[in-house]
Amino acid sequence: MTSAHPGRGQTSAAARAEDGAEGAAKRVERALAAAVLRGEYPAGSLLPTMRELAARFEVNLGTVQRAAASLERSGLVSARQGSGIRVNDLHTSADLSLVPAWIEALVDQPARAAALLGEFLEVRRVLAAHLLVKHRRSFTGRPALDDAVASLAEAARAGAAAFRAADLAVARGLVDHTGNTVIALVLNAASELLEEVPALAEAMYAEPHRNVRATRAVLAALRSRRADARVRAEIEAALGGVDRATVARFAERLASR
Fold first, then answer.
1. pTM of the full structure
2. How many domains does the chain contain in total?
3. Contact (CB, 8 A) for 136 and 231
4. Which of 12, 57, 148, 235 is the most exposed place for a label (fewest CB within 10 A)?
């Protein structure tokens, strides 16, 4: 029996085939990215040839080529015709967008994953403290921030998902007041990290009262009349306490798996 709408059927079949090909390319990309991020292929080394990868993952060459192109766009590798796929030095080619995938790739190596998380949180903390103090005058007379902090305290009793959403909302409110695009991107990476690595969300929000207390301390410091240097130190101390506890719990959770 023929279809009354052959064109529609062909389009649907083509779409399904395309979705399947894209899914296969994504699977290959993720596996190779994880291997690179774990250090299984050191900087300067070559990945297996396209044909070898196609055989290993049981896909065609076009799928491997799409995966390699995605890896190159992310900065993990450089692909050159006739020279193979060479692994880049991530310290000179990667960016913040790789942090979630990098930590996720290291979940079976608690020490390395925790160390990388600690570095990321330190950068976030220092940058945030500097920018918040720089723009501290804008935090005076902002009842919306007080309302957000009050909602955060209430969310602590509503469950982990609600608290995480409220915490990110407060962070977003603080970041928006700085008007700084880069710290907003750092926050985006942190949000993705919490989404991609459940063990991190569990570690960060294991003691919600600590997060609420730190947030209130940050807002109080910004609205105080103390010198900028002291306010900056107080903010870093408040956020640092949460970050250190998060990293320690994260490592413990990974180690106990």
1. 0.85
2. 2
3. yes
4. 12
